[in-house]
Amino acid sequence: MGAPDSPQLGSIEQFCKAAELGSFTAAAEFFGVTPAAVSRSISRLEKRLGVRLFSRTTRSIKVTNEGELYWKECQLALEQIAEAERAITGAQTVPSGLLRISVSAAYGTYRLLPLMPKFTEAYPQIEIELSISDKIIDFVEEGFDLAIRLGIQRDSRLVAYKLEDVFLGVFGTPQYLKKKGTPRSLNDLEAHDCIQYISPNTGRPLMWIFKDDLGNEIDYPIRSRMRILNDALGCIAWVNAGGGLYQTYRFAATDAVARGDLVEVLQAHGGRSRPFSILYPQNRHLSAKVRAFVDFLRSTLSVLPAQ
């Protein structure tokens, strides 16, 4: 028998289900017990923790702030236990369950989403929940299984694999270039409307990167009166509307260039790329669903043409 203050797995499971369903009665029906039994179990849990997990009225329950935090942590712990059991019993041969992925906007929209039908067809028992946003995430607080982000991460709490290096180009519409002229050198950018992306990580404009006339890699500071905060897709929409020039990933402009809607300029100074990485928490058991997604993405991207 465990110590009096040790965690009780059954109580934690009932608490998580009540928080998920918003009802002691619904949780009781799920576990085949009475609502009073669930209420007593959660009360014992609250007494042991010394906090209120639910605000109760005669008609409803609501998870408290403390309860919300505890719920998210407990969900991760219960899933790790389930994964461990599946691993040792051999039930992990078929990846399944909910996979929550956070991915930056441009990469998610133009690179990841076109690949997802192939993944969901290969793994029909995995549910996918995608958050497509450039904002910084907290894995534990927000409950994500993995993330795809720009750059090589130096966080010791995370496992990171580089997926690929993605090449960049500067693009504008034919109408814009007819009006403003086509830049032939980097100095010509001073006379153009250049759309800037403000990074949520630094709060500063993302540098445009080029090669100079000698082939040396350079960072080029853009001065512009047109800026978009935290939304790379907004920058792409602006350039597609003829608002100016924008340096973006070639995969985001491929279709528009093929249709003649966009034109790449300054190609003599191109050839620079940025890396994208896939990340997941260091201390989290690597579930079959996460492993399946990581392996799928790395193998699929390895055979795609360079962008």
Oligomeric state of the chains present here:
single chain
* Poorly predicted tracts of residues: none
Individual helix count:
11
Overall average pLDDT: 87
Beta-strand content bin? 15-25%
**SSE ordering:** HHHEEHEHHEHEEHEEEEHEHEEH
Helix/strand/pairing class, anyone? alpha/beta
Task: Calculate the terminal CA-CA distance, rounded to whole Å.
Answer: 60 Å
DSSP summary, beta strand count: 13
The rounded Rg comes to: 25 Å
Query: What form results from the Cα inertia axes?
Result: elongated
Largest sheet: 7 strands, mixed
Please estimate the helix content. Answer: 25-40%
Summarize it.
It contains eleven helices and 13 strands.
Structural account:
There is one protein chain. This protein is 40% helix and 23% strand. It has 307 residues and is of the alpha/beta class. Helix 1 (9-21) packs across helix 2 (24-31) and helix 1 packs across helix 3 (35-49). The longest helix is centred in the N-terminal third of the chain and has 25 residues, at 65-89. The radius of gyration is 25 Å and the shape is elongated. The mean pLDDT is 87.
Question: How are the secondary structure elements laid out?
Answer:
Layout: H1 9-21, H2 24-31, H3 35-49, E1 54-56, E2 61-63, H4 65-89, E3 97-103, H5 105-112, H6 116-122, E4 126-132, H7 139-142, E5 146-150, E6 158-172, H8 174-180, E7 195-198, E8 208-211, E9 217-220, E10 226-229, H9 232-240, E11 246-249, H10 250-259, E12 263-265, E13 273-281, H11 288-303
Parallel strand pairs: 3-4, 3-5, 7-10
Antiparallel strand pairs: 1-2, 5-13, 6-11, 6-12, 6-13, 8-9
Helix pairs in contact: 1-2, 1-3, 1-4, 2-3
